[in-house]
């Protein structure tokens, strides 16, 4: 039986430049804040490790089978779609000046949290129209400190739920439904998505943008 081999494999990417073995050997030495945050992710995961895992499906589940589209509009908000499920929300004014890559990562990290029970023990493709974000998601590292806060959260969620993920780019014209959500155009989204649930997945207070610690 696998002991989180699949889940751990995807997290072997060196967040801030250190592999897991290097992180372990560096404990007790002087490290950058980024490295210390990386160590914290692993300690948090290990503290909840139950010693069991499941075999992933043999093939990657791409968007035509499991839809997970996301988008963000800097001056508006964010949104994501997973099959019939969807959510959206506005960015607070204090977030609207943030790096667009950070804003684009947010609905991905949030989707993993909200829909973890649907994604558990699966291989998932996050579909985005931000080409730069694809590399960051697939390599699980970025030079941008705020982006790394969300990447670490995404990786920790995937480890805890035995999720393997990757990102794939599509042109913005093909991401219209998620774009509508990010622009808070709900009526238009429902026109384009008649199969979607009537109501969005509720984002709990502790996962709203204003509740995230960005330090």
Describe, in plain words, how this protein is organized in 3D.
- With 215 residues, the chain is an alpha+beta fold.
- The protein has a single domain, classed as 2-Layer Sandwich (Nucleotidyltransferase, domain 5), CATH 3.30.420.10.
- The chain has helices spanning 5-10, 20-26, 33-48, 100-114, 116-119, 131-139, 145-160, 176-182, 186-192; strands spanning 68-72, 77-82, 85-90, 123-128, 164-169.
- A three-stranded antiparallel beta sheet has the order 1-2-3, with helices on both faces. A two-stranded parallel sheet has the order 4-5.
- Helix 4 packs parallel to helix 7.
- The radius of gyration is 17 Å and the shape is globular.
- CATH fold assignment: Nucleotidyltransferase, domain 5
CA-atom Rg in angstroms = 17 Å
Strand content: 5-15%
Q: Determine the fraction of residues in helical runs and give it as a percent range.
A: 40-55%
H/E element sequence: HHHEEEHHEHHEHH
User: Widest sheet: strand order?
Assistant: 1-2-3
Looking at the overall shape, the CATH architecture is: 2-Layer Sandwich
Distance between the termini: 38 Å
Q: CATH superfamily name?
A: Ribonuclease H-like superfamily/Ribonuclease H
Domain module tally: 1
Quick one: biggest sheet? 3 strands, antiparallel
How many helix segments? 9
Instruction: Return residue spans where pLDDT drops below 50 for at least 5 consecutive residues.
Output: 1-14
Structural class: alpha+beta
* Highest CATH level, the class: Alpha Beta
What's the average pLDDT? Answer: 81
The number of strands is 5
Task: Give the overall shape.
Answer: globular
């Amino acid at each position: 039986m696998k002991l989180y081999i699949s889940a751990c494999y995807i997290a072997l990417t060196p967040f801030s430049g250190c592999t897991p073995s290097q992180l372990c050997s560096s404990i007790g030495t002087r490290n950058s804040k980024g490295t210390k945050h990386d160590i914290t992710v692993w300690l948090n995961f290990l503290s909840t490790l139950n010693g069991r895992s499941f075999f992933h499906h043999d093939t990657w589940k791409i968007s035509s089978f499991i839809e997970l589209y996301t988008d963000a509009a800097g001056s508006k908000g964010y949104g994501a779609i997973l099959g019939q499920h969807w959510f959206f929300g506005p960015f607070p004014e204090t977030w609207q000046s943030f790096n667009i890559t950070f804003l684009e990562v947010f609905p991905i990290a949030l989707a993993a949290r909200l829909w973890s029970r649907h994604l558990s023990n699966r291989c998932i493709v996050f579909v985005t129209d931000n080409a730069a974000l694809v590399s960051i998601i697939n390599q699980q590292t970025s030079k941008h400190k705020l982006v790394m806060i969300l990447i670490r959260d995404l990786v920790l969620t995937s480890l805890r739920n035995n999720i393997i993920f990757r990102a794939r780019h599509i042109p913005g014209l093909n991401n219209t439904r998620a774009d509508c959500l990010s622009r808070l155009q709900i009526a238009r989204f429902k026109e384009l998505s008649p199969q979607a649930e009537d109501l969005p997945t509720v984002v709990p207070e502790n996962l709203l943008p204003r509740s995230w610690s960005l330090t």
